[in-house]
Structures are given as C-alpha cells and as structure tokens.
UniProtKB/TrEMBL annotation:
Enzyme kind, highest EC tier: transferase
EC annotation from Swiss-Prot or TrEMBL: 2.1.1.221
PANTHER family in the record: TRNA (GUANINE-9-) METHYLTRANSFERASE (PTHR13563), TRNA METHYLTRANSFERASE 10 HOMOLOG B (PTHR13563:SF19)
Keywords of the record: Methyltransferase, S-adenosyl-L-methionine, Transferase
Protein known as: tRNA (guanine(9)-N(1))-methyltransferase
Biological processes annotated in GO: tRNA N1-guanine methylation
Molecular-function annotations in GO: tRNA (guanosine(9)-N1)-methyltransferase activity; tRNA binding
Species this chain originates from: Nothocercus nigrocapillus
Keyword S-adenosyl-L-methionine: yes
Length: 134
C-alpha cells in the first residue's frame, strides 16, 4: 500500500466492497442520487462509482446501487454552486473519480463544502461558487 495526500492509506483488493463491508455501512456516490451528502460519517464506507462514458450510461451508477440495495448520495454541487453562462450551455454534475476524491479529501480537511467543491469541480463543468461570479 502507499500513502495518498499524506493522510490516506490506499489498499487494493480483488474482493467486492459488498463482501468487505456491511450493506448498511456503504454509501454509493452517484450524481443521480436524490440524497445530498451533507457530511462525511467516519462509520460509513463511500464508494465512488465510475463510468467510461456518461452520455451512454445515464443513471447506470444509480441503478447499480439500487440493484445492490445500497444507500446513495450525491455531492452538494447545486446547493453550493451556481450555473455559469457558457457558449455550449453545458452544465454537468458528473465528475471524474479523481475530482470526487479531491472534493471529499478537501472537505475532510476543511469541513467546508465551498472549499471542497472549488478544489474538485473544474469551471469546465459549468458550475462556480457564487462569489466567483463577481
């Protein structure tokens, strides 16, 4: 194993998270969830769902979590950020896994969603913090 971001230890395994943790401890993070992640609970295990092509597999991560009877949550992007005007009229709450990790690790350190979202949500997603529009 190796240390990531100075305070996370990462281990890899071939085992499924369903075999490693109790179902009621798992929270599957998906942008399609109706539940907003308001805080990180150290007793929970957060699974970062990932896809290769979001346009083809719309809501697939949410369906996977439902099939496995898992709790779901989404990052509070629309609660803390605003849509920006852009030439493509593009707005997406779907982030790459490394971006989600950046959001979660920054929130863990700062307990500030604005700081966390600023760290992980690029302006190319079409969302910015309200004070960034001034």
């Amino acid at each position: 194993s190796f240390h990531l971001a100075f305070f996370f230890q990462m281990d890899t395994t071939q085992e499924s998270y369903l075999d490693l943790f109790p179902l009621d401890a798992i929270v599957y993070l998906t942008p399609d969830s109706e539940n907003v992640l308001e805080d990180i609970d150290p007793k929970k295990v957060y699974v970062l769902g990932g896809l290769v092509d979001e346009s083809i597999h719309k809501k697939l991560t949410l369906q996977k979590a439902r099939d496995q009877s898992l709790q779901t949550a989404r990052l509070p992007i629309r609660e803390y950020m605003v849509k920006t005007i852009n030439t493509k009229n593009y707005h997406s709450e779907t982030l790459a896994i490394n971006q989600v990790f950046d959001v979660l690790s920054t929130y863990y350190k700062t307990r500030s969603w604005p700081a966390a979202l600023k760290a992980g949500v690029s302006s190319g997603k079409g969302y910015v913090l309200p004070n960034a529009m001034n």
